[in-house]
Specification:
The structure is a single chain. The protein is α+β, with helices and mostly antiparallel strands and 262 residues long. Among the domains are: 95 residues, no CATH class; 88 residues, no CATH class. The protein has eight helices and twelve strands. It is flat and about 75 Å long.
Length: 262
């Protein structure tokens, strides 16, 4: 481990709040935004609730730990301690972040079929009990049998779960929806098929970034329309189109489209 790790991780200038979020214009960072109580003259500092935050660069620590996979955790931990003065509060702070990357309280439980073991750890909230390391937040764990640092493969497991969920949603949507044209669809609800007429939601189209930066004040001022399918008011922050009308299909139409109950 590099001897100046604590400097790389902790000792660097702190960011001004909002620099990476559009100049600090988000509601939680600035005072008197769109407020009638704003004074006629406002100093640069007075306009901010919190002007700074702690800016820690944990990437070097993570890279070091990831490069130690396959080594005994005792030796890796000893190297960390050798480069940190625990009498120094700032340097000791590094050790608090190690738990974010390495699970040390791990047990090996035999599988029900007798083939191999399942590695489990105590979650952040111990009341949740033991959970598989592949469901954790950390990329590494210590094998309780050998003391070797190993990968949890948690990121890969979560990625597979997201893909499976998306594929299941796509299959479900294909069974319950047929697109006829840009503004006409066939949709199924409670085993009943409807012809749904769509229209553009009032207001200009929004980019993905604009949707993510949504504030309550934007939604309140946006043009809205009543979606008869969702049975609620929608704006451009919800979707680009909405259901204007729906009509139940008769048996002849259902047969002509080759539809069936789901």
């Amino acid at each position: 481990m590099r001897t100046d790790m604590y400097k790389v991780i902790v000792e660097r200038p702190r960011l001004i709040r909002g620099n990476s979020l559009g100049g600090g214009r988000e509601g939680g960072f600035r005072q008197f935004m769109s407020s009638e109580e704003r004074p006629s003259k406002l100093g640069m500092r007075a306009g901010h609730r919190n002007r700074k935050w702690l800016n820690e660069n944990l990437a070097p620590l993570k890279r070091f730990l990831m490069s130690q996979v396959g080594r005994p955790w005792n030796k890796v931990h000893a190297e960390l301690l050798a480069g940190i003065d625990q009498r120094n509060t700032v340097q000791q702070h590094i050790l608090a972040h190690v738990d974010n990357y390495v699970l040390t309280e791990v047990r090996a439980t035999p599988r029900a079929n007798g083939r191999g073991v399942v590695f489990e750890h105590l979650g952040r909230w111990r009341s949740h009990g033991w959970i598989p390391v592949s469901d954790s937040w950390a990329p590494l764990f210590v094998d309780p049998r050998t003391g070797i640092l190993r990968l949890t493969h948690a990121a890969e497991a979560k990625a597979k779960a997201r893909v499976a969920k998306l594929q299941a949603a796509t299959r479900d949507d294909a069974q319950k929806r047929r697109v006829i044209s840009a503004y006409k669809e066939l949709r199924c609800a409670d085993d009943v098929w409807y012809e749904v007429t769509l229209a553009e939601v009032p207001g200009g189209k929004l980019t993905r970034a604009e949707r993510r930066s949504l504030r309550a004040v934007n939604r309140e001022g946006a043009a809205a329309a009543w979606d008869v399918w969702k049975k609620r008011i929608v704006t451009r922050y919800d979707a680009d189109t909405y259901a204007v009308n729906k009509r139940q299909l008769n048996s002849a139409e259902i047969a002509s489209f080759g539809l069936r109950s789901v």
